[in-house]
Amino acid sequence: IDCVGGGILVAIKADIKSTRHLDLARKSVELVVVELSRPDRRSFLLYTFYRPPDSLPEVLQHLNSSLQSIQESDCCVVVGDFNLPMLDWSNDQAAPVNIGGNASGNVLCELVGDNFLHQFIEGKTHEAGNKLDLLLCNCPETIEKVTTTPADECGFPSDHYIIDFIIRLKFERTKPIKRQVFNYYQADFESLRHSLSRIPFENISSYDNIDDRWSCWKTLFITAVSEHVPTKFIKDINTPPWIDQEVRNLIRKKYSALKRYRKNKSDALKKKLRDISQA
After folding, report:
1. 10 Å Cβ neighbour count for 85?
2. Are 110 and 84 spatial neighbours (Cβ–Cβ below 8 Å)?
3. 180 - beta bridge partners?
4. 232: part of which helix (H) or strand (E)?
5. Could you say which DSSP state residue 175 is in?
6. CA angle (141, 273, 246) in 5-degree steps
7. How far apart are CA 150 and CA 156, in angstroms?
8. Integer distance in angstroms from the first to the last C-alpha of the chain?
9. Is residue 133 within 8 Å of 161, Cβ to Cβ?
10. 101: phi > 0 → left, psi -120 to 50 → alpha, else beta; which?
11. Which residue, 90, 122, 123, is CA-closest to 109?
12. What is the mean pLDDT for each group of 10 consecutive residues in the chain (279 residues)?
């Protein structure tokens, strides 16, 4: 109603609980937002969006406004035909690059970065060779097995490709793992420095292979450390070893900056949010 373009249809199986969020819709924008859930599963918001070709940048700004109004902890999946083939979605980019200079392309680049969205479709989604349809999500671990298939191979009359993907909503918790680590708080650093000063590290240069040099250095160093630094056992509970206190602090800072930016969308807060997100 009151929309111009291709229209949107969202079909949901009867055994999936669904709630349409009219509060997240925007007037004169082809957007349907539905919350989907199953028993003992995490719920998520499904955004289905259509951007008519040559539409004004305000259309994407309305979509961004809707995304900015959800909770930071909400998992959202955004699918639809964005009709912006000039964007570069290289894998090494945190956000797409607008190589066409289109104003709507700039808005979408900001939308992806501001909402921490990841794009999952590789290759073209249209028979003309363009990537028009996008699959975006702010929880990348939930999206699996994304495939694209020409519509004629499925007997469907469309010039767009059929996109299939799985949304994983239940995760098994990993079992706690005990690891033996050095307890540097109880280390005898004076004796350790003395031992290290007496190790003939210069003999490492006798090895031609860099891997052999590294192995020799590591053996000499760890042997000295083991003599002067006690060990202890720690238990990792569902946390990768690289998620240390510094990373946790950065994650908290990111979401705090996001919350402040959503309350007051100033340029200064926006820059601070992006700096923290790229740290």
Report:
1. 16
2. no
3. 233
4. strand 231-236
5. P
6. 65
7. 9
8. 43
9. yes
10. left
11. 90
12. 66 90 91 88 91 91 92 90 89 72 89 89 91 92 92 90 90 72 93 94 92 94 95 76 76 82 80 75
How many residues comprise the chain? 279
In the chain, what's the furthest Cα-to-Cα distance? 81
Grouping H, G, I as helix, E, B as strand and the rest as coil, residue 149 is: strand
Encoding tokens for residue 13?
């199986």
Around Cβ 67, how many Cβ atoms within 10 Å? 23
- At 24, list the tokens: 């997240």
CA-based nearest residue to 119, from 150, 82, 151: 82
**Looking up tokens 């003309």, which residue turns up?**
128
At residue 60, the pLDDT reads: 94
Query: Do the beta carbons of residue 77 and residue 85 sit within 8 Å?
Result: no
Alpha carbons 30 and 64: distance in angstroms, whole number: 13
Which DSSP state fits 96? -
Is residue 143 within 8 A of residue 77, CB to CB? The reply is yes
Name the token pair of 276.
């923290």
Q: Which residues of 68-81 are buried (b: 16+ CB within 10 A; e: fewer)?
A: eebeeeebbbbbbb
